[in-house]
Amino acid sequence: MRPNLADADINDLSHQHPSDIAEHIGGLNEQERTLAFLLLPGEQKSAVFTYFPYALQEDLLKQLASADTAEMLENMAPDDRTEIFENFPDLLIKESINLLSPEEKRIALNLLGYPEKSIARIMTPYYLQVKKGWTVRQALDHIKKYGKKAETMNHVYVVDKNNKLVDDIRIGRLLMAEDDQTIESLRDYQFVSLVTTMSREEAIEKFDKYDRSVMPVVSESGVLVGIVTHDDIFDEVERRDTEDIQKLGGLEALALSYTDTPLFTLVRKRASVLTILFLGEMLTASAMALFEEELAQAVVLALFIPLIISSGGNSGSQAATLVVRAMAIKELDLKDWWYVMRKEVLSGLMLGCLLGAIGFLRIMVWQQAGFYNYGDHTVLIGLTVGLSLVGIVLWGTLSGSMTPFLLQRFRLDPATSSAPFVATLVDVTGLVIYFTIAASILKGTLL
């Protein structure tokens, strides 16, 4: 049953976390949803709005009066506001920005002016900044005066007379210092910063490398222009990982969440890759046609085709997934291809021998138990299947592990070496390996 306004008094609702409030309001019908949202306190509207799905955000903005929209956007953190604007139609962005005060409008336009995937798009201009010549007392007075609007108070950023970042100081160190000490005397001359034009992928790597909860953002000339906090980076990590998982699954990455993506967009994103894979799998039929004569003479070989190609595809998918993930967390780089190849050759041989032995034993047991009669050449058939599994699993692990390196070499996303693509490649080539081995072992007997 869908909730309504009678389910929870709006005053009780307003004391909950913004995420919980957004979840409750999102379950109301359209009329009650708008009313419930309008009844929230001013600043809380901004916090709750950021947790709504994009489609609901757009609907609400269209229904709200200009004054309500202006108040909500004015109170919103600049980085959250920019993220929302990135997913709105151009006309709605223009109308929304024009409702802001001159100062907030300048900030919004400045953030939107950076490259789309740059770290500057998600930074906030609200931070604590002090001059290196100030005393601790001057710095604390400044923090008391302007700190309320700061996104975080973990660090105080030290700048020179040209507003260039020269250091950062933990707020705890500042609080423990004597009032007459200078900021210069507290510096350790060690700080890490991001550059406005840096990609979000690079920023994630820096956060991970230096284990920071917040990092300053500077212009190319070193001028401090904003900060990026850990919650913004967590959102980017989630988007990146979601995109990689979708690509590994064999579809184009979705710009919006699954629930917000329109049906026809979802079909289009999936259809293109499915069509390519289907055309690739058609080569499997062509490969089988090449060995039509062998199949006609030894129909028993057809029984093991699903077993053979699925084993190769599965081993290739495993290898591709392991290597792509290792590349994503910078555990592997292009120069490591030879190390990976050596390791995967051994892995492929060991896994192939394991599956080959199981396949051989399965045929022998079925023959002895009377479950199926493979004829007078059961051992040869078992050897054919066993050796084919060794070769195909080895080829699958090599294909799956090397394809990401090949893509990276040509500056393509390794995640596009998805499991379905590798499986399709191994399916086609696996049949060639299977029938070639069968022709060699069974020649003069079944063939």
Automatic annotation (TrEMBL):
Provide the CBS domain boundaries. 186-243
Say if the entry is tagged with keyword Lyase.
no
Q: What is its main location?
A: membrane
- Positions of transmembrane segments: 271-291, 297-324, 345-365, 377-398, 419-442
What function does this protein fulfil? Acts as a magnesium transporter.
User: In which family does this protein belong, per the annotation?
Assistant: Belongs to the SLC41A transporter family.
Q: Supply the name of the protein.
A: Magnesium transporter MgtE
Organism this protein belongs to: Pontibacter amylolyticus
